[in-house]
Amino acid sequence: MNFVMPNLPLAAAEIFVLTMACVVLLADLFWGKKHPRLAYGLTLFTLAGAFVLTYGLLALIGGEVVATFSNMYVRDVMGDFLKLGVYLAVFAVVVYARGFLAARGQDKGEFYLFVLFALLGMMVMITSNHFLTLYLGLELLALSLYALVALDRDSARATEAAMKYFVLGSLASGLLLYGMSMIYGATGTLEISAIAAQIHQGAARKEVLVFGLVFLMAGLAFKLGVAPFHMWIPDVYHGAPAPIALFIASAPKLATFAMAMRLLVGGLLGLSDQWQLMLMFLAVLSIALGNLAAIAQTNIKRMLGYSAISHMGFLALGLLSGVVEGDPHGALNAYSSAMFYAVVYVLMSLAAFGLVALLSREGIEAEHISDFQGLNKRSPWLAALMGLTMFSMAGVPFFVGFWAKLSVLQAVVQAGYLWLAVFAVVFSLIGAFYYLRIIKVMYFDEPQVLSPVGGPLDARVLLSVNGLLIIGFGLFPEQLMRLCAMSMITSF
Q1: Helices (DSSP H) in 322-417: which residue ranges?
Q2: Who contacts 261 (Cβ-Cβ below 8 Å, separation ≥6)?
Q3: Does pLDDT of 254 surpass 50?
Q4: How far is the CA of 332 from the CAs of 259, 314, 325, 327, 486, in angstroms?
Q5: What is the pLDDT of residues 95-136, one digit of tens each?
Q6: How far apart are CA 223 and CA 231, in angstroms?
Q7: Nearest-angstrom CA–CA distance, 79 and 125
Q8: Would you say residue 85 lies in a domain?
Q9: Do 484 and 408 contact (CB within 8 A), yes or no?
Q10: CA pseudo-torsion sign 80, 395, 314, 365
Q11: How much is the mean pLDDT over the chain?
Q12: Domain for residue 390, yes or no?
């Protein structure tokens, strides 16, 4: 057998992140006690370096799709764009988390090490063209998140959340792996692009493929967090410390979106009639259940968890709307709208959970809605940031969340599912209640605590930038939409 040397420069960012994760491990071991911020600084340096490497590769190669490592790794514009988004999201998570962890004596190298390994898992997921590498990236991400949730070993609640997450996540991984094995049995290959060719040629048994697709969709639905595979989300968000919940709610959504695109559009488009109906069921159930259950919540992290379920339902609407027979423009519009929605949701989640982490005091998390009472009197700027984030999540014009919802609804209508668009709008109006309740509490209730809001300067500055981006992209969404559409044109 002839060994073909892989094109290593294509994976320069992944190699750099893996190397720096080892450096962070050793540096924290030998010099962590003398220099407590060493791991923090090295992690930010790693993110900046990976960003430069990925952006440089994008500028050098452009829209060319290149595969290497025996076609197990694929480089395209969609992958590069999502990786850049992941770097920025993880950068914000690290900055928001430092003050929270330092106040509790948990600002240690383990947190940054697990974050970097989770980042590496997401990068592998985004660039996978093979079931094996996709599953390895997914498990690297999942195992890192399990450990992060249980990082506070003295917290019984965090330990319970980690156990729930681990057990349910292991079950979902098993379902996903079983589905992959069935598809492999039907096609004789693990390479995603080769599976697509086999299905297109009619060389695989459709009954076996559909059977495997059911299990694969179940595992994918768990990772997306859509109903009825959703129950881990509110429990894990509630039990995990605010920065960990922030991490789970943000960057992994981009990697999971990439996973859905690689599997469903890149590999199983020939089975679109089947997975479209499955996504439709998941989307309807998620939008209804997420919005209705969030109304009853008094814990803001659980509320944001149920909100995430409804948002992922909207993301599923964008994915299923791409199945328009004979209309590639409609498919491009739907998939780019879904990608735009994923990016916007991550931006909004970073702001919402970042504010929860910033408002938390030593030994006390600002996780109850009552903790936001009278926030406008304590910090008018932070109250304004939280207000605009809630307006954006509710889809109020002219914040970026409005354009995200509108673009997906337009794709749904163009695909011929007017009833589905009406259903989504009705439940979005119902869901606006729990977002507006936060604004009412901040501006019209008396504060329980009169002390001013502190927190590290870098976190407060980044939160301000985060909030201004929500406004800026709301006023000028064209550039971000164009980037999403361009990445889809060159990748699929």
Answers
A1: 328-359, 375-378, 380-394, 400-414
A2: 78, 319, 335, 339, 492
A3: yes
A4: 17, 17, 12, 9, 9
A5: 998 888 888 777 788 899 999 999 999 999 999 999 999 999
A6: 12
A7: 9
A8: yes
A9: no
A10: positive
A11: 88
A12: yes
What type of residue is 375? Answer: L
Length of the chain, in residues: 492
Domain that holds residue 97: 8-491
Rounded distance between C-alpha atoms, residue 47 and residue 84, angstroms: 10
- What ranges in 225-327 are assigned the alpha helix state H? 232-239, 242-249, 251-260, 272-295, 300-320
Helices (H), ranges, 188-231: 192-201, 206-224
**Is 332 among the domain residues?**
yes
Instruction: Centre a 10 Å sphere on the Cβ of residue 272 and count the other Cβ atoms it contains.
Output: 18
240-257: b or e for each residue (b if 16 or more CB lie within 10 Å)? Answer: bbbbbbbbbbbbbbbbbb
In single-letter form, the type of residue at position 244 comes to: I
Q: Are 342 and 257 in contact (CB under 8 A)?
A: yes
Residue type, 148: L
3-state secondary structure of 398: coil
What Å distances lie between residue 392 and 66, 247, 250, 402, 479, CA to CA? 37, 20, 16, 6, 18
Report the domain count for the chain: 1
Place of tokens 């700027």: 381
The answer to whether the beta carbons of residues 324 and 415 sit under 8 Å apart is yes
Beta bridge partner(s), residue 368: 299
Report yes or no: 85 and 41 within 8 Å, Cβ to Cβ.
no
Tokens standing for residue 230 = 């959703």
Tell me the pLDDT tens digit for each residue of 128-157: 999 999 999 999 999 999 999 988 887 888
Closest by Cα among 76, 57, 74 to 6: 74
Distant-in-sequence, close-in-space partners of 286: CB < 8 Å, separation ≥ 6: 226, 227, 230, 309, 310, 312, 313, 316
C-beta of residue 331 within 8 angstroms of C-beta of residue 276: no
Q: Which among 352, 99, 338, 170 has a CA at the least distance from the CA of 245?
A: 352
Rounded distance between C-alpha atoms, residue 275 and residue 273, angstroms = 6
Residue 29 pLDDT: 84
SS3 361: strand
Cβ neighbours around 221 below 10 Å, total: 25
Between 100 and 2, the more confident residue is 100
Q: How far is CA 420 from the centre of its chain?
A: 24
Both tokens assigned to 206? 């459709």
Q: Is residue 2 part of a domain?
A: no
- DSSP structural state of residue 299: B
Interior/surface letters 20-38, b for 16+ CB within 10 angstroms, e for the rest: bbeebbebbeeebeeeeeb
3-state secondary structure of 128: strand
Model-wide pTM > 0.90: yes
